[in-house]
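Reading a protein record of the kind used here takes only a little practice. The record below shows the convention in full:
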Amino acid sequence: MGSGAAEAAKTCNPDACSAPVPYPSLISLPSGQGTMKQDQIITILTSFLVAGLGWFIGYLTALQRDKSVKRRDLRTQYLIEAFRLLEGASNRGRASADMLKPLESAIADIQLLGSVTQVHLAKEFAVEFAAKRTASGDALAASLRGELRMELGLDPVSEPITYLRITQEPG
């Protein structure tokens, strides 16, 4: 018995005899496709990490873009309304009481959301109106029209603004 065990030990070639190696790989693939090596696992995990990071950066960029678009749209809407109110009050002689509040609101919106030039023109308009109870809003209206047309992708217009005022005949 003893000699048979010694013979078996002698006949086992170290290359042919494979003793179980503890944890040869971390993941075994199905269907006998072999095992996944540690470097393959790192490659896959790195790919998932890069893809996830790319998605997150894309998401943050989209959020920032949406916020910017909403801000621009809101500003454009307010300035269009301010232009309409300013145009509606222009060239009417004395301002009626029902035109004063909307005109005040338009000047306030321009001072809040307008360009630096428009804020300056709105201030000049407000100071002159306060002193004389009348003021020309032509320069301010032209500035608003130019910027709004540019924002909306329309061609610039060099013509001065024409105000249509229809009065009823007494009678």
